Amino acid sequence: MKVAIIGGGIIGLMTAYYLAKEGTNVTVFDPSPGKFSIHAAGLIEPYRFDRINTSAMIYKMLKYMKRGVTEVRQLNRLWIRELLLNLNKSPPEEAWETMRAMAKFSLDAYSKFAEEKNDFDYANDGLLEIYSKKDDLEKGVEEEKRSPFSPKTEIVDVPGFAGGIYFPELSRIATEKFTRRIISEVENMKVKFQQKKVVPDLEKFKIGNLKFDKIVLANGVWITSTLKLPVTSFKGYGLWIKGTTKLKEAFVTVDEGIAVSPLSDHVKVTGGFSADFTEEWKGDRILDKISSLLKVEDIIERNMGFRPCSPDGFPILGEKGNVIVATGACRLGWSYGPAMGYYASELALDKIESLGYLSRYVESLEY
Ligand SMILES: Cc1cc2nc3c(=O)[nH]c(=O)nc-3n(C[C@H](O)[C@H](O)[C@H](O)COP(=O)(O)OP(=O)(O)OC[C@H]3O[C@@H](n4cnc5c(N)ncnc54)[C@H](O)[C@@H]3O)c2cc1C
């Protein structure tokens, strides 16, 4: 069977990996594989899942806008419509079961890759959420008690702040190193790369003059140029920093949504959550907001990415007539990446037919 994967971000690469492991003939199309995934903080934090279609989340976004963390420049209209139609509606329990299975699969997968060879700064040392206000910390603690993932948490002191919630089960990686590792593994398994932007013919199953049995669309926010899906972009920035942090483990400041991860040869700092599809750079200002916790000596590299967000935060993963859709994981694409790649491969190999709630939108697609 010949499978084309459009998009070589974390989701497309993981799909290629699991398909190639089954001996499938795979071609990945992407002008620059990994380019729009490596900016991420690399926190493997599937338990920090946010439902988007809630009044609480809209309120949080408004607070972010007031603080200058978020700008709203452009939103997919279909996304707004679905968000409003489904505001405060809960997903079925089956959706949470799938997410819990995907969270476990992904955490285990990174751990296994690291056991084989830890060439991507894998660290299983947990994640700290830092709160500046006591009220917010208390609300955060209550939220975790209600979390469908039932994560282990500890409340800790953080000097200069109201405190923090520590998640001991979470891990982290260096995204650019993991991307290099997976590209090398899939190349060894004979996956081909065509470094170009393509427009698939979903009726004839052709890309240019190449014919395929299945086509996987894993091209993030750009999926909407091919399919009518409620996916919108929340842009953010990633900076590779030479400097020192006050804490040795990874942390996220809840007020600003800034993540910091000290890695072997740099500190990764990410932030920004703007409804925006443009490549305009506004990333350096993140560093001013984190100056009490990070001393910057130099900026080594700057990258940006576009979180592909569904209206409720749940990934969009399903198949319609030999076209597989794998996107929508929003701010947790790396956290769920291995599982999304695995289940996309299971769909392509006809081992499963559907992912239930996660296949909403896909099974009714028209193209
Ligand atoms: C600042 C920031 C920090 C983040 N931190 C984390 C984190 O710590 N943990 C976490 O789990 N997630 C994190 N995320 C989210 C994560 O980065 C995204 O969910 C993830 O990158 C989405 O992966 P993807 O493969 O779906 O899409 P992308 O990474 O956007 O990849 C899509 C690919 O498709 C290609 N493409 C597009 N159109 C075409 C076409 N027509 N033909 C061929 N190729 C095409 C693009 O070139 C691109 O390489 C963060 C995001 C941001 C913005």
TrEMBL record:
<dbReference type="InterPro" id="IPR036188">
    <property type="entry name" value="FAD/NAD-bd_sf"/>
</dbReference>
<keyword id="KW-0560">Oxidoreductase</keyword>
<dbReference type="GO" id="GO:0005737">
    <property type="term" value="C:cytoplasm"/>
</dbReference>
<protein>
    <submittedName>
        <fullName>FAD-dependent oxidoreductase</fullName>
    </submittedName>
</protein>
<dbReference type="InterPro" id="IPR006076">
    <property type="entry name" value="FAD-dep_OxRdtase"/>
</dbReference>
<dbReference type="GO" id="GO:0016491">
    <property type="term" value="F:oxidoreductase activity"/>
</dbReference>
<comment type="similarity">
    <text>Belongs to the DadA oxidoreductase family.</text>
</comment>
<feature type="domain" description="FAD dependent oxidoreductase">
    <location>
        <begin position="2"/>
        <end position="347"/>
    </location>
</feature>
<dbReference type="Pfam" id="PF01266">
    <property type="entry name" value="DAO"/>
</dbReference>
<keyword id="KW-0285">Flavoprotein</keyword>
